[in-house]
Amino acid sequence: DDVSIESKDTAKVDVLIYIEKKYLTDSLQIRDSILLSIIGSAKVPLYPRRFKFNDNLTLDVSEYLSKFTDNIMNSDDIILEKLKIKDITLATTKMEAILNFNNSSGLSYIISNLNILLYNDKSPTTKVGSSNVEDDIVIQSDSISIINSVIKIDNMKMGASLFRNKIRKKDMMYMSINADIKYSNIVFPITLIKKFKYDPLTSKIEIQ
To answer: Sign of dihedral through CA atoms 149, 67, 65, 140?
Structure first.
């Protein structure tokens, strides 16, 4: 539709830009800004023909990236499938965490710097265990990937935490799953909090 601009006035035009998902291939390079070409024409008084213009506008896309990344992954796509005790020594306990990454975005991406932290409280004050996956993990499009990670727990910190929790009548522990998601040259962090009950006397684990 035509836009009328009064003499010595300024008009604001809202434009919606649609990017079809099928064109977001794995080879696409999305940078911190994109270049828009603005092409149009205008009827100018006392000018016999339409005045044509072609101008470029640099658009900072950082504020829009969150909407894009939400389409690649959200917290519901990561499922803590299982926790089980693998080994117990006097000083440490090794707990295996099995994670399911459900990728229904139609795009492949990479998980890097995956680490899991265990806390005895909802507020991350006392860390009692951790694990790190050093290698990058490729998540193929439209697939479910299973990732195993072994968490090393400090039994001394765990015992003190469980004792305090018993006094406070709290038996819940908290797990923070952290990673960087890489798609093309975009890297964005994710954090997912899970909670579970753990009884060290029976090794019973109940994921909430």
So the answer is: positive
- Tens-place pLDDT, residues 34-58: 777 888 888 877 777 787 888 888 7
Report how far apart the first and last C-alpha atoms of the chain are (Å, whole number): 55
> CB of 161 within 8 A of CB of 196?
no
Within 10 angstroms of residue 72's Cβ, the number of other Cβ atoms is 21
For residue 145, give the nearest of 111, 178, 179 by alpha carbon: 111
* Residue given tokens 């522990």 in the structure block: 173
Q: Label residue 130 by pLDDT band (50, 70, 90).
A: very high
In order of 35, 58, 107, 122, 184, the CA distances from 55 in angstroms are 10, 10, 32, 53, 28
* Consecutive H or E run containing 118: strand 109-119
Query: Would the pLDDT of 31 be above 60?
Result: no
Do 196 and 208 contact (CB within 8 A), yes or no? yes
Work out the average pLDDT over 150-174.
74
DSSP 78: E
| Whole-structure pTM value | 0.67
The maximal CA–CA distance of the chain, rounded, in angstroms, is 92
C-alpha to C-alpha distance for 174 and 163, rounded to whole angstroms: 16
Mean pLDDT taken over the chain: 79
Residue 50 has what DSSP assignment?
Answer: P
Count CB-CB contacts under 10 A for residue 133: 18
So what's the pLDDT on residue 159?
73
